[in-house]
Amino acid sequence: MKRKITLFVVAMFLFGAFSAFAELKIGVVNMQRALDECDAGKAAVEEMKKIYNEKQQEINEKQNELKKMQEEINNQSSLLSDEAKQAKLDEYQKKLKELKRFVADSNEELKKKEKEYIARIANDLRKVVEALGKELKYDVILEIREAGVMYNSNKVDITNLVIERYNKEWHARQK
């Protein structure tokens, strides 16, 4: 008799556990896609392009200046004294070193700016996901790439909803 009761309790526990899993509401979100497709992400990309183009223009100007210096050195080489030639070569080397430093600093600045944009937008997106999870009564929302999700149906993918909500909030803050 005790054995039947024990089996009944175990069966009820297992049935309860399975029914609890059947009631779970799970969603997945692709944060990379949300970052890429949300309006703030697109604006950040445009801002990064603008900064890049400004830096590239400065680099091109400095490179043209160096080309002119090199041409001058080559054209005047036979006319200049050794001291004057060495002074021009030293100045050329100095400007070349400055250009290399400027390029390295510009790349570092762009990387830093990109990380700042990504961190800020990703943080805002996480808040949106959390708010949607509470509002729509999800039990679990997984990031599709980080959680190792191997398959999900489109029914549980809330990425479009996250992008839509974030765009709405972002545009409201821009006013």
UniProtKB/TrEMBL annotation:
Any one Gene Ontology molecular-function term assigned to this protein's record: unfolded protein binding
Superkingdom of the source species: Bacteria
GO terms (BP aspect): protein stabilization
A GO CC term attached to the entry: cytosol
Entry keyword annotation includes Transmembrane: no
Coiled-coil segments on the chain, per record: 42-116
UniProt keyword annotation of Protein transport present: no
Signal peptide: 1-22
Pfam families (alphabetical): OmpH
Keywords: Coiled coil, Signal
Family note: Belongs to the Skp family.
Name under which the protein is recorded: OmpH family outer membrane protein
